[in-house]
Amino acid sequence: MPYFFKNSVLPAGFLIANIIGAGMFALPFVFRQSGLMPGVLYLGFFGILAALIHLIYADIILRTRETRQQFPGYIRQYLGENAGMFSGFLVFTTLLFTLTAYLVLSASFLHILIPTLSPIIAMLLFWVLATVTIFITIKRTAVFDTVTAGITLAVIGVLFIYWGLMFPFDSDAFPVLTAKNVLVPFGPVLFSFIGFSAIPALVAYVRKESVPFANMKKAIVVGSLMPALFYFLYVVAVWGMSPVVSPDSVSGLIGSVPFFILLALSILGFVSLWDSYSGVGRDINKLLEYEWRITPPIALAITAGAPPALYLFGFQDFIALISAVGGILFSIWGILIIFAWKKAIKVSIPSVKFSEIYIPDRVYSIINDIPPFVIDLLLLVFAGGIVYELASLLTR
């Protein structure tokens, strides 16, 4: 395998594939509310924020000698048993509501593919298909994820080009700024950029393939930033082609684009959701069995039954769900990661050689003495997001 492909393309592609997902489909709607200028600023700022928090999380993993842990394990090791227990519930809640958001969005895609289906039947059909694959062992590889990321980016590019060639430019379709709604995109954008679950697997790939230290850092930065460009292309294309921008962004295209465009987007969205749902479901099942020691049959029942139960209990607002998951739950993840990292840099050194020139007992870092004010800014952003999204939920 060529050096550049193995050491740069694959790790970056793996992260991109795990970042770009359901959140993308909400961006045209929330940016329509705030305006194009805040949308561009959000994409740039949160791309950088995601790169920093992914690097910080990767640095924690590199400094930890126990390499098979997941998020609660790292938090427990550096912040104590109570924090570890809290982080376990945090992960469970985050993943559970993420699955519920996937169910809500799946109904929109299936309705386009099969218009006669009611939302409930469409949701249940997707749930059955996705739940079955949760409990089938599927080997995910960096090559597979890089290919799927390439297909996703290609479809977004084709959509943007199609809009540019087939639709006249209409400035009214591109609102510049709506000041009163400028904070609306916070949760959905954070949801769309965070790839926490991919970082342990990415570090494991780097360790297995002996990827140089610098290449891993570049891959995390590129993998975190590149989605911003394609999100922008997607938002602009949807705005330019949609008479009305819908919360799922695809339904609003009905009647304004040929069916093959709708079909391509629906299939892409459905397959992406299916793959993501299965992966997140496996993470929940592992947490229940290995972290909480719940027996496999009960863990299976909780993993399979909780998301549709939440859906049927009324959690059917896609934008509200990803706003809460992104703005509140992922923000708490970010705060815990930062506090754990502050402890990790004092007590541990990397357990594996990640430099072509390796000096024993030297403390290496992939974030190279990040300025304290940047860390404080990240904490402020996460804390502000929690307060805003909680206030928004209470006033809905």
What does this structure look like?
With 396 residues, the protein is an all-alpha fold. The protein has a single domain, classed as Amino acid/polyamine transporter I (Up-down Bundle), CATH 1.20.1740.10. Helices cover 73% and strands 0% of the residues. The protein is built from 14 helices and no strands. It has helices spanning 3-19, 27-34, 36-62, 71-79, 81-113, 119-134, 142-166, 186-193, 198-209, 213-241, 259-291, 296-312, 318-347, 372-395. The longest helix has 33 residues, at 81-113. The chain is globular. Mean pLDDT is 85; it is low at 351-359.
Which tags fit this structure?
single chain, about 400 residues, mainly alpha, Amino acid/polyamine transporter I, 14 helices, transmembrane helix, cell inner membrane
Task: Offer a quick outline of the entry.
With about 400 residues, this protein is an all-alpha fold.
- N- to C-terminal distance: 53 Å
Q: For the report, how would you describe the main beta sheet?
A: none
Q: Give the rounded overall mean pLDDT.
A: 85
Order of helices and strands: HHHHHHHHHHHHHH
Determine Rg (CA atoms, Å): 21 Å
Q: What gross morphology would you assign?
A: globular
Helix content percent band: over 70%
* Count of the domains: 1
Class from secondary-structure proportions: mainly alpha
Q: What is the CATH class name? A: Mainly Alpha
The number of helices is 14
Q: Could you name the CATH topology?
A: Amino acid/polyamine transporter I
Low-confidence stretches are: 351-359
Binned strand content = under 5%
